[in-house]
Design goal:
Largest sheet: 3 strands, antiparallel
Helix content: 40-55%
Shape: elongated
Number of helices: 19
Order of helices and strands: EHEHHEHHEEEEHEHEHHHHHHHHHHHH
Mean pLDDT: 94
Length: 487
Amino acid sequence: MTTPARTRVAPSPTGDPHVGTAYMALFDKAWAVKTGGRFVLRIEDTDRARLVAGSEQQIIDTLDWLGLSPDESPVLGGPYAPYKQSERLDRYQPIVDRLIAEGHAYHCWCSPERLARMREEKAARKEDTRYDRLCYRMTKQERAELPGFTETPTVRMLIPDDAPTVFHDVIRGDVKAPFPDDQIIMKTDGFPTYHLAVVVDDHEMDITTVVRGEEWISSTPKHILLYRWLGWEPPQFAHMPLLRNADHSKISKRKNPAARLMWFKEQGYLPEALRNFLQLLAYPPAGGDEEISTFEQFVEGFDWGKVNTVGPIFDTKKLDWLNGHYIRELSDDELGDRLVEYISENEQWGPDPDPAWAGIVRAAAGMIKPRLVKLSDAWDQIAFLTVPDDSIRVEDTARAQLKDDAAEILDATAEVLGAVEPFDADTIQAALRARLVDAMGLKARAGFAPLRVATSGRKVSPPLFETCQILGRESTLARIEGLRRRL
C-alpha cells in the first residue's frame, strides 16, 4: 500500500492566478486522491511589495471552479493552520537564530548597490557571480567600516564545499543541480525568503510530496541542506515540465493571455475541458489514444513515471476541441444554465437585460449546442431572439441572397405559419416543406431563405424551425411582415 501523501500548492497572491497554479494543483490533487491523502492550499504572501488585493480570493475561486478544491486552506482551516505565511512569521525567526548559532548562516550588511556592482565586476572577469562572502565572520562594526554597508542586514546560508548537488526526483530520477549560492533566507524587513519559508512550512505541515516547476531544480540543493541542518526528513520532489509558448519560451502573463487562469473562464471554457487539457500537457491519455478522460480516470491510472519531462507547448486549439466536446456532452438544461450564468457574469446582454431573456437562452441552448466551441460564442448566435420584432437589422449579405420571388414566398410562409398547429419545430418544418417545396416546387434552401432573413436578419443562423418555435407564432409573423414591407 502507498502511504497517504500530503501535497500542497503554494501560490503567491501577486495578481491574477497563473495557469501554472492549476497545472500543479491538478497533479498535487491527483496524487493525494490516489494515495488517500490530503491536498493543501497554502498562500505564500511574504513578498509584501508585490501583493495584489483580491488575488488570494481569485486563487481560491478558480481552484474551486476547476474542481481542484483543497482539503485544507486558509478558508477551510485544518490541523496545520495557519495556511498563510504572513500569519506564520513567529515560526521563522527561531529557525534563523538556530542556523546562525550552529554556524550554518550569517548576517550580510551589503547594500543592493554593492551586490549589483560585485556581480557586474565578476561577470566582466568571467568569474562565478555568487556572493563573495565579504560579510562572513564580520561584526556589524567591522563591516560598517567598509564601503557598501547598509544598517539592516539580511541573513544568508553558509553553503559548505561538499553541498549536495544530486537528488532524486520521482519524475526525473537522479538529477544534478548547479552548486548553490549563499542564499538569503531572511530579508531586511524580517520576512523569510521563499527558500526558508517553504522548507519550514512544508515540514510543519507534514508535506510528503513537493510538486513544482522544473525552474526550482536549481534551488533544491539549498532546501535539502536546510532539511539536513535542521534534522528533518525531506519530502520527495516532483519537478514538472514548464508550460511553453509556441516559440518554446516559458509561458508568462506578459506574453500570453492564456497564462492567466481567469482568462479561460472569461473566454467561456468549461472547467472540465481545461482540467482535461492540463492533464494532456504533461501526461499520456488515460485511455491510450483516447484523449477525453475524467479526473477520476486520471487518478485511477496515475503514475509519476508517466509524466513527460519535455516542456509541453500550450496550444489552445486542442483546448477548443476538448471544450466543444464537453459542451456537447452537457444536457440541454445544464448547458442552458451555464450559458445564462456566463452571459450574466460577463454582461454580454448589456446593462439592463430583460428577465425573460434567460428563458430564451435556455430554450435556445439545445439548438446551438453543435455549433459552440466556447460559452462566449452563444450570445452572438442568439441575441437576435431578444431584439424587438420591429428592430431586426437585415445584414447586407442576407438581403443580397433574396430572389425576386421573396415577397411571394413570405406571403405563403405567413399563411402557413398563421394556421399550423402545434407551433413547434417539427410541425412547422413539415408544413412549410409541403407548401414551399412540394406545392410551389422550390428548392428547400431557396424556399426557407426569406424566413431565415426575416426572423434573424442573417444569411446564416441557428436552426430555422427551432428559432420559430422559440420566437412563437406572433413574433415570427411580425418579423415576416417587417421584412415584407421592406421588399
